[in-house]
Design the sequence.
């Protein structure tokens, strides 16, 4: 039971990192829960995996949006 609450607190810590735009630390925290948690069927790993997947997707979308702003349009007459 203690492992469940400890892992749950790390997932909440990842949420704090996300709120602070510290995506690197959030991803590392979620990955450590996925890799180190020993009870596979109580929802913790599923929750951490879901958050990690969403974070990676959002981060890629943000990077693509930033890259779109880097485009220079040249018009030839």
Sequence:
């Amino acid at each position: 039971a203690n492992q469940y609450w400890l892992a749950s607190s790390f997932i909440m810590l990842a949420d704090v990192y996300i709120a602070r735009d510290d995506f690197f630390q959030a991803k590392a925290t979620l990955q450590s829960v996925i890799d180190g948690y020993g009870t596979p069927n109580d929802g913790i790993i599923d929750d951490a995996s879901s958050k990690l997947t969403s974070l990676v997707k959002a981060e890629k979308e943000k990077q693509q949006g930033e890259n779109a702003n880097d485009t220079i349009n040249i018009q030839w007459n």
Observations:
- The CA atoms of residues 34 and 49 lie 7 Å apart.
- The first helix runs from residue 2 to 19.
- The radius of gyration is 17 Å.
- The chain has one domain: 2-66.
